[in-house]
Amino acid sequence: MSKTTTIISLFLLLSTTITTAITTVSSDITALKSLKSYINPKTIPSYTCLHSWDFTSDPCSPPHVTHFLCGLTCTKNRVTQLTLDPAGYTGTLSPLVSQLTQLITIDLSDNKFFGPIPNSIFSLPNLQTLILGSNSFSGTIPPSIQNLKKLQTLDISHNSLSGSLPPNSLTQLTELTRLDLSYNKLTGPIPKLPKNIIQLALKSNSLSGYLQKPSFTELTQLEVLELSENSLTGTIPAWVFLIPSIQQINLSNNTFTSIQVSKPSVNSNLIAVDLGYNKISGYPPVNFSIYPMLASLTLRYNKLRGRIPWEYTKTTTLSRLFLDGNFLIGLPPKEFFSGKNIISGSLGDNCLKSCPISSGLCLKSQKPWSICQQAYRGKQKPKS
After folding, report:
1. DSSP conformational letter for 14
2. Which one of 43, 280, 310, 333 has the fewest beta carbons within 10 angstroms of its own beta carbon?
3. What φ, ψ does residue 276 adopt, rounded to 5°?
């Protein structure tokens, strides 16, 4: 036998030995088998990841030619990522998923999982990403969620979760930077939130109560605040707009009744504010005009009165302004129509005088004068 043939034979033997050595631990295999067994086989088409899981070969041993083509990732002999394709899998989530103790990522989004999220999933010690969005999970978020000490991303949006947010558990998730629980059936107040949150989305639930400063006190890195389509009420306090890193705020479609806006810090990065479809009364807040980065402001369909602040025409950053659906009076600032300020939005459905129909800002007609007079009855009278 030649030297070259001997080297090749030795290489093949070593490769076979290495491949054979990579044998997935039995508890992981048991968990994967259970996961697949909890899913209706009629919802596992031949082209999907789960269809390739037939367990005639070892899940973590390469090469993956015909079996375990996708849906999981291994590090050595342990499953570290579970990322199912959005194939419409229907079933419940096996509680034995907790045996995959080296999992870093779980992503089951855009399928048809239903039933409660197994409590055992909250015992995974290394989990950093948990994405269960766009399924039909129900039940509550248990206090045991606080055990996910390494969690960075939590997305359970577009499900049917109910109950209140666990009041003392979320703060224990000190590594969490992204939290999305939008489009569920969550109720109650907003509790104290994890201090390192960057993106917070609780849109389209039934959250109620006031915006309490203690819930947001430590959120110095928050950039996106999405609380629209809830039942939050009371005053929108000035500190909301002064959160150090805040860039986008959406509090639309709630029942807020008033607003406080103080002067911004010199380092304010606030770009977009949407407070539309509330019950905010009083005058349009002038101080929005001095936020140095503000490009989009929506105050539409509230109960604002008085004149449009002329200061809104002096900002060089504001490019979108929606004030329609209020009870604003007087002449709209002529600078909006001079061509110098390129601004889009709407001033319609108010009580304005001489809003030029040639402008896109005035496409919606103004309210009938009788409605305007009724709105100002006992208050400042609008001038005809």
Report:
1. H
2. 310
3. -70, 160
- What is the predicted pLDDT for the residue at 382? 54
- Regions of the chain where pLDDT drops below 70: 1-21, 341, 378-384
Residue type, position 293, single letter: M
- Give the model confidence (pLDDT) of 25-46 as tens digits: 999 999 999 999 999 999 999 9
Query: If 0-12 CB within 10 Å is exposed, 13-18 middle and 19+ buried, where does residue 117 land?
Result: buried
**Phi/psi of residue 162, nearest 5 degrees:** -135, 180
Which residue(s) pair with 300 in the sheet?
none
Amino acid identity, residue 2? S
The Cα 26–Cα 36 span in angstroms is: 16
Place of tokens 């990065």: 269
* Strand (E) or helix (H) holding 312: none
Pairing of strands 78-83, 72-75: antiparallel
Identify residue 280 by its one-letter amino acid code.
Answer: I
pLDDT, residue 3, reads 37
Could you tell me how many residues make up the chain?
Answer: 384
Q: Quick one: CA dihedral 297, 298, 304, 310, positive or negative?
A: positive
User: What is the value of pTM for the model shown?
Assistant: 0.91
Query: CA–CA separation, 302 vs 277, rounded Å?
Result: 6
CA proximity to 132, closest of 103, 96, 161: 161
pLDDT of 15: 42
CA distance linking residue 353 with residue 334, whole number of Å: 12
Using DSSP, state whether 207 is helix, strand or coil: strand
32 residue type, one letter = L
pLDDT tens digits, one per residue of 149-185: 999 999 999 999 999 999 889 999 999 999 999 999 9
Long-range contacts, 281-284 (Cβ 8 Å, 24+) = 281/257, 281/305, 282/258, 283/309, 284/308, 284/309, 284/312, 284/323, 284/328
Closest to 302 (Cα-Cα) out of 285, 332, 323: 323
Identity of the amino acid at 265? S
